[in-house]
């Protein structure tokens, strides 16, 4: 199995999997607009560092998940609860911004720690990378050898960082294209996380 091929797969699937609006990249957009490029790069670094253990755990669990689907189901149930809580949190934040009074200093949050926290709460990351590994293995395009897994992990980390970096870099252009959309970004995050929770719940029930 080619090392560069595993690196490419890790990069490609983590990048493509994060292109569409989600909690992580919309937060990157928000941080870029509010605090600038340096802040969003620190946020992206925080998110990407957590991807390392997530990918490794996903690969380790892949064989077990394939043999025992209840493990994946348990992770999804836990993820639903997390996304419901996050949806409520972002909804409250959107309300706070509307009633904010000028002159009151807003609580500062560190983008790097925000990235670590949100990435750690993103419990769908492990099922995503596990599903990727299972799909690649089905076509004999994956290997569980230590070195190859490390390169797959490295590619996944860089792919995640790069898509968040692009969201931050082009935040103002995205804002111009979407207009009022990015002005209510907390409510967008609330809707996105709520939708993911609802979709996952329906998927488990049916």
From TrEMBL:
<keyword id="KW-1133">Transmembrane helix</keyword>
<feature type="transmembrane region" description="Helical">
    <location>
        <begin position="187"/>
        <end position="205"/>
    </location>
</feature>
<feature type="transmembrane region" description="Helical">
    <location>
        <begin position="40"/>
        <end position="62"/>
    </location>
</feature>
<protein>
    <submittedName>
        <fullName>Glutamate dehydrogenase</fullName>
    </submittedName>
</protein>
<feature type="transmembrane region" description="Helical">
    <location>
        <begin position="6"/>
        <end position="28"/>
    </location>
</feature>
<feature type="transmembrane region" description="Helical">
    <location>
        <begin position="146"/>
        <end position="167"/>
    </location>
</feature>
<dbReference type="Pfam" id="PF01810">
    <property type="entry name" value="LysE"/>
</dbReference>
<keyword id="KW-0812">Transmembrane</keyword>
<dbReference type="InterPro" id="IPR001123">
    <property type="entry name" value="LeuE-type"/>
</dbReference>
<keyword id="KW-0472">Membrane</keyword>
<dbReference type="GO" id="GO:0006865">
    <property type="term" value="P:amino acid transport"/>
</dbReference>
<feature type="transmembrane region" description="Helical">
    <location>
        <begin position="112"/>
        <end position="134"/>
    </location>
</feature>
<dbReference type="GO" id="GO:0005886">
    <property type="term" value="C:plasma membrane"/>
</dbReference>
<keyword id="KW-1003">Cell membrane</keyword>
<feature type="transmembrane region" description="Helical">
    <location>
        <begin position="74"/>
        <end position="91"/>
    </location>
</feature>
